[in-house]
Amino acid sequence: MKRYVLALFVALCTWSVAHAQPAGSGAPVPPPPVQGADQSMNAGGSASPTAAPAAGSAATPGAGSPSTTKPGLAWYDELAAKPKDVSTNFWLPKSVNKVADESDHMFIACVALSAFFFLAIAIAVVYFVWKYRGMSMVRKIIPSPAHNDALEITWTVIPTIICVFLFYFGWRAYIEVVTPPQKAVEINVLAWRWAWEFKHENGVTDNNLHVPIGEPVRLVMTSKDVLHSFYIPVMRVKQDLVPRRYTYAWFEATKPGTYQMYCAEYCGTNHSQMKPAVVVHQAGMTTTWDDQNGHHSVVDRGYENYLNDKAAESTNMPPVDLGKMLYEKKGCNACHTIDGTPRVGPTWAQKDWGKQIQMSDGKTVTMDENYVRESILSPLAKARPGYPPSMPSFEGQLKEKELAGLIAYIKSLKQ
Ligand SMILES: [Cu+2]
User: Fold this and answer.
1) What's the 93 CA to ligand 1 centre distance in angstroms?
2) 3 state SS of 357
3) In the chain, which residues fall in CATH 2.60.40.420?
4) pLDDT reading at 219 higher than 90
5) Distance from the CA of 265 to the center of ligand 1, in angstroms?
6) How far is the CA of 230 from the centre of ligand 1 (A)?
7) Cα torsion for 358, 361, 366, 368, to the nearest 10°?
8) Cβ of 223: how many Cβ atoms within 10 Å?
């Protein structure tokens, strides 16, 4: 009977494990309430801050970002949507944080020590039980020794040495983990039920965390409502977020990739959906990654480009202001002035807007949005007399919104 019940129990357990709902399946989760989230929304004005990381990023296909495989997704959102990198290390996903190695070593040392003493003690117990089994011992009672100096010193000194070692290395690792370097990229983290928002130094906000490789990243975190916990397993970073006060964490990523982040403090219904992507950007120039399975390559244009492109995409700046900003940021000011003096190129303070202008090949064109757009994207197509064809093409380097901003700015400079 007993055996039958046990077998039934085991069968039930097996069945329930096999049929467990995989995480993330089931009914689609409605977008969480925004609760006055002061995020600058994307161009598309989509009001869902969490759900699809890229929804509403109205990246115009063909303009700006290099060709991506999913049209409509900006390159950085496509990186965030990539399958997560999970190479494991037997117990833990492989660490990609420069300062996590020491704590990993501590963890392994503690497990190894515990395993060693567990086995040693278990073997000793079994051995002595076996050795002193039987009745003969009971009859011949041996008085137990009062003490044994050698033994007592040994079992005091050895554990003390072990503890001192554990303390020393643990303390070192801990100090490193809680002390960010002076020079760090600072990112503000805000959590609420049930979303994350990451705000970068240039004001860009995102629901996925984008960080540079090889630079310390310091997180200044707080919560709008209840306790949440910031947890990136591959970074070995876990830190509570507390309403009405700031907590800190830092890491320095060592390997580009897309990783998983979680909320590790149960905070209600959609707690399990609070799992944005962490994108560690390759340093410097554009890089193309292939997925593990070889197809679908994604382009990483780096953290700096992420900040710029995301800023341009999500900006609510009036076009003229955006154009004014880009005039300096994109280096147009090296060749164009806005005070009427010609430099390498014609000044933007012109009287020509809307009028016919003469080209070096004798033809005339109207100075309008189309002409300016063409001048920026293919500068060699038409040129004014007296100016060398020395303007570089900005094809692929400006988003549609940025182009519109520059055009609006040039238009606004009409005298
Ligand atoms: Cu949470």
Assistant:
1) 22
2) strand
3) 38-97+181-316
4) yes
5) 6
6) 8
7) -110
8) 23
Q: What is the pLDDT of residue 153?
A: 94
What's the start-to-end Cα distance of the chain, in Å?
A: 99
pLDDT at site 326: 85
> How far is the centre of ligand 1, averaged over its atoms, from the C-alpha of 1 (Å)?
46
Give me 30's structure tokens: 């409605």
Number of H helices, E strands in the chain: 9, 17
CA angle 267, 269, 274 (to 5 degrees): 65
Spacing, Cα 236 to ligand 1 middle (Å): 18
Start-end of CATH 1.10.760.10 domains in the chain: 318-412
**Ligand 1 centroid vs 192 CA: distance in angstroms?**
7
If you measure from the C-alpha of residue 175 to the centroid of ligand 1, how many angstroms do you get, rounded to a whole number? Answer: 27
**How many other β-carbons are positioned within 10 Å of the β-carbon of residue 352?**
16
pLDDT(46) > 60: no
Q: Is 375 helix (H, G, I), strand (E, B) or coil?
A: helix
C-alpha 102 – ligand 1 centre gap (Å): 28
Ligand 1 centroid from CA 191, angstroms: 7
- Compute the distance from residue 125 Cα to the ligand 1 centre, in Å: 46
- 318-412 has which CATH code? 1.10.760.10
DSSP 253: B
CA of 33 relative to ligand 1 center, distance in Å: 14
Q: Name the helix (H) or strand (E) containing 78.
A: helix 75-81
Distance (angstroms) between ligand 1 centre and the Cα of 276 equals 11
**Whole-angstrom Cα distance, residue 286 to residue 283?**
9
Count of Cβ atoms closer than 10 Å to residue 172 Cβ? 13
Strand partners for 304: none
pLDDT at 138 over 70: no
Taking the centre of ligand 1 as the mean of its atom positions, its distance from the CA of residue 174, in whole angstroms, is 25
CA distance 335 to 323: 15
- What architecture does CATH give domain 38-97+181-316? Sandwich (2.60)
- Give me ligand 1 centre to Cα 136, in Å: 64
Which helix (H) or strand (E) covers residue 228, if one does? Answer: strand 228-232
Q: How remote is the CA of residue 223 from the centroid of ligand 1, in Å? A: 9
Lowest mean pLDDT among 17-31, 350-364, 377-391, 399-413: 17-31
